[in-house]
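Ticket 4471: requesting a sanity check on a complex prediction with copper (II) ion. Repro inputs:
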Amino acid sequence: MASIAVARRESTFWDTVWGWVTTVDHKRIGALYGITAFIFFMIGGVEATLMRMQLARPEQTLVSPDVFNQLFSMHGTTMIFLAIMPLGAAFFNIIIPLQVGARDVAFPRLNAFSYWTFLAGGLLLNSSWFLGGGLNAGWFAYSPLTGLTYNPGHGVDFWAVSLLVLGTASMAAAFNFIVTIVNMRAPGMSLTRMPVFTWMTLIVSILIVTAFPVITVALIELVFDRAFGFNFFNVFAGGDPLLWQHLFWVFGHPEVYILILPAMGIVSEVLPVFSRKPLFGYPFIIFSGIAIGVMGWMVWAHHMFTVGMGPVANTVFTLTTITIAVPTGVKIFNWVATVWGGQLTLKTPMLFSLGFIAMFIIGGLSGLMHAVSPSDAQQSDTYFIVAHIHYVLFGGAIFAIFSGIYYWFPKATGRLMNETSGKIHFWLTMIGFNLTFFPMHFVGLNGMPRRIATYSAGMGWDFWNMVETVGAFVIIAGILLFLHNFFRSLRKGEVAGNDPWDGRTLEWAIPSPPPEYNFERIPVVHSRDPFWEQKHPHPLGVPAGASQQRPGNRAQQPAVAHAAETHEVIHIPSPSYWPLITALGNAIAGYSLVYRFIPGLFIGGALTMFGLYSWYMEPTVKHENKKH
Amino acid sequence: MRPHWLLALIAAIVLPGIFVAWMIWGGYEPNLPQSTFQADGPVGKLQKDLFWIIFWSATVIFVVIEGIFVYAIFRFPRRPNQPIPPQTHGHQTLEIGWTIAPAIVLAVVAVPTVSALWQIYNVPEEKAGLAIEVRAHQWWWEFKYPNQGVVTANEVHMPVGTRVHFTLHSDDVIHSFWIPKLGGKLDVIPNHSNVIWLQGDEPGEYYGQCAEFCGEAHAFMRFRAVVDTQADFDKWVAAQKAPASAAATGAATTGEALFMGKGACTACHTVAGTNAKGVIGPNLTHVGSRTTIAAGIMPNDHENLVKWLSDPGGIKPGNKMATVIGKSIKLTPDEVGALATYVQGLK
Ligand code: HEC
Ligand SMILES: [Cu+2]
Ligand SMILES: [Cu+2]
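Returned structure tokens:
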């Protein structure tokens, strides 16, 4: 057997740092994405906690209204763009090449560029806290409140420019994953054999490259209004504030699916493994994912039911929005059917995935309730909506992300996370989450608007607000336990082996952690659950997605050990610092745009061009020519 | 040992049941001042009835799916030495069934939805009833009755059982006009004049609040809607049209002088029949007759007026009055007391 040693000489601390800074290895970039995004997740959590403390009792003055307004604006922006999206990107990075049987992503250096640009955008946004204050107009930043007249500070500029920078990062990453998934699948992995997580990543990536240009247009208009005196949204010059809302939500609704589809992908991987059954209704799960992706473009104005669009538009968007419940329901039914009749092991990843389904049903149904626009007029802009989005994005996305972390941690690190801590983490999260967000339905229906810095004592919202704050601290206890478990398990966790969960997909066939080149030989795929088929050769009929006439006896042709062709040369892309330089140019241009310092824009732009040029001129691969 | 199906069944009923019970027990509080569970007008009633249709449909769906799901979790744990379960990949008929069934449920729900929608949002050209022009400002409300010739602020009066058309204007940012017990909200958008109709069927005082984030003092942008009997409403209109009452006491006279002079109140406030013609702040001609001050955030009494005039920015951070009062114009406690007395006398 071949043994390919790719020696990484990292003797000193600075060598290690340099190794990470110049890395183009998808697994390392994934780790960087994950760690950075988790730090931002905790910053967003601190913002949320301060808000919960302020609202625990009526008429508190722990923070001023001005600070409170920044807290909720930055909390939303941070959780969506700096936590959930990049946590998804961390999974794409670490898992996709392994699942499709590839040695890396299609464009490794572009991948590094995406990460550094994301980091630059995140730091740009959060540095506003120290440079005069953050965004204070809500995460959807409705004009004309974001105009210079009402918002002379730089918070809006930091927000708009950092979203432009982050958009660049997301689009670059999305193109990369589209190409990787379309072009780099192992031989035999047809689209109908592709793992569901990979499928959802593909759909999300397509949504990103189509939705982000829309918000980019809106943001550029906003920046031009503020920096160069344009009048897109200036109401005094006849600008239309609703233009912003349409552009924002044409992006914003697909964005919701950008946040939730990766989560659905994770759950679709975890459930079959811990039920020892294939995913029920694979084609229906895929098609409903595609249907959701397409229909997600037709519902944006349900965020605008109270802007006075008139009965015709309200009817249309009510009907499209309730229709989108059908494919969502199909997914849920298929997950339930996957579990039904299985053999369930309630390990931590499974608990979080089951929790996802249980909570997502609630979020889906409350979504249906405000899809109904006449009664939504009572719910919009109240805590009922806040409850809904958290059932979808926390009970949904965050639960699934934790599930994915516990599930793939052993693959990425070679060690298992501690089960007992994991289970306690799950229950703390489950209980804390419901204590925090379920009562928000109540106060919302009882008239509590969202985004209020305080409320008076006589409104009757005191009790449940206090319960919500207590719940937030239960969640925090869970997160602290998770962090402890994570870092302890990195060093002391039980050794996992290649396949601790009896996995079904290709990533479980290779060592944990995977070698730099992932697959010694590129596997050949014959069915939808290739590794499972190899371990349990079809005792019960033809496996799903298997071709009817398979060449030879597959028992002698295991998916993973046999190569399509004998690779003697393994291409490992060489490290490069040009992606970082290119991203740095973006950061410089970003700060200059915030402060309307035009020469800085050109300096940053020039640096980016120079970085790109040098990147282009650099040789792409170092050849490791190891004969054996 | 395989857990008994009965145990799974109990779990399948109890766990979703907890959420339903919690929702009903914790959430249903129609007596709260802004509760949407109490509807005192036709728009609110349409919305509330529709809410209950959707709510109970959703609850049934919730109990059934969540129940089956919980049942499966408890019923099918892995036991040692089990052979691999049948590797079922799907079921065509089931898939078609659970695609069509929800579609039918949704189609049924859509009927009352669309019907309510047209009743609420289809505002006829011919606007019978009372017309009120609402102008939202950062962070207070102005109400103008074009046909009655009345201008007031932060407290809107409407006669019982009469359809009222509110035309919504904003000169600054977006706000949202909302009186929960009378009906759902509509946004107040610059360069767009939205019209919402509401009707109060029970005389009483209702809470209103700005529902769209509109800047620093958004949380403090509230108001009151008072539904009067027709007789009371007519009396109110007559009183509002009368000129401001003259200062009656010595303190009030001192206050009036301060109001027209040192206090610079006239720069921003109107008191009909005097030199005070400012339009930046609320019309104060009959402010003494209103139940609250500073956009519905505190009861209108001497003590609160003193607090407000001494430090408007402390009470309502960011409000426009605080850009002058307490900053360039500093009033002594005596002056504040006199001003409060004068303002309170403007019945
Ligand atoms: C710079 C303009 C300005 C000046 C000067 C000013 N006010 Fe005001 N005033 C306002 C504004 C704006 C509001 C509404 C504040 C809010 O609720 O956001 C207001 C509100 C009030 C209210 C409450 C009205 C209500 O219906 O809730 C009273 C009473 C009042 N002012 C009295 C005075 C007095 C007395 C003076 C002079 C000492 C004065 N104001 C000076 C702008 C001004
Ligand atoms: Cu949406
Ligand atoms: Cu507001």
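Notes from triage: The first strand of chain A starts at residue 569 and ends at 573. Leaving this open until the requester confirms.
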